[in-house]
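Practice problem 4.
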């Protein structure tokens, strides 16, 4: 294991070391200590390595991630996992706002709660939250899956496209053009697969599926008030 003390190495040098790892690296396991809420930790990784951050992180941790697994042993600041393409991010604590924004692939797991705008403009990422999520989550969600074992705040899935939302608890309100959907066998199987991958023990039959009503895909003057 490669260990980096961020208080000694510095953010730029640490990220340079991580970026220097190729697909065939033998330095596959890294541990970062003393993060002290620093921003942009482990951003832009593109190698099959595992990075464990021992503490809480600031803005944009593990942004633009590809292939790597990033474990955060603390809470994560705004924009964690923004534009994730592949790989996995696991947050042991809570996540701040716009988690996984514009994510195209991979998985983000939150063992605590996630704040507002979780999964905003998601484009294929899978996000699994063991706790609750805040308002305006999955706004303009285009593709991917948002799984919430707790409750969801106001305006879930506002102006969404083809992203799927599985909520076990209560939804305070649905956003424009988001509606409750039938939970079919293929959705139960998909949800079980996502929960298993996230390492969360929950019964898929306890969840409700939500998604786009598909009335705002094209402008219609009769729906003008919903835009």
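Answer key:
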């Amino acid at each position: 294991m490669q260990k980096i003390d961020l208080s000694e190495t510095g953010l730029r040098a640490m990220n340079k070391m991580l970026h220097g790892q190729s697909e065939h690296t033998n330095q596959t396991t890294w541990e970062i200590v003393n993060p002290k809420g620093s921003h942009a930790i482990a951003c832009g990784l593109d190698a099959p390595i595992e990075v464990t951050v021992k503490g809480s992180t600031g803005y944009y941790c593990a942004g633009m991630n590809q292939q790597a697994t990033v474990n955060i042993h603390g809470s994560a600041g705004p924009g964690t996992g923004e534009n994730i393409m592949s790989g996995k991010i696991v947050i042991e604590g809570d996540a701040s706002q716009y988690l996984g924004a514009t994510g195209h692939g991979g998985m983000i797991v939150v063992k605590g709660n996630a704040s507002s705008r979780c999964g905003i403009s998601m484009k294929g990422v899978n996000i699994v939250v063991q706790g609750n999520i805040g308002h305006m989550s999955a706004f303009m969600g285009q593709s991917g899956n948002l799984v919430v074992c707790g409750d969801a705040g106001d305006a879930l899935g506002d102006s969404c496209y083809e992203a799927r939302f599985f909520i076990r608890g209560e939804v305070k309100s649905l956003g424009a053009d988001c509606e409750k959907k039938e939970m079919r066998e293929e959705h139960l199987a998909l949800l079980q697969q996502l929960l298993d991958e996230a390492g969360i023990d929950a019964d898929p039959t306890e969840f409700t599926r939500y998604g786009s009503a598909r009335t705002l895909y094209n402008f219609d003057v009769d729906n003008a008030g919903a835009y």
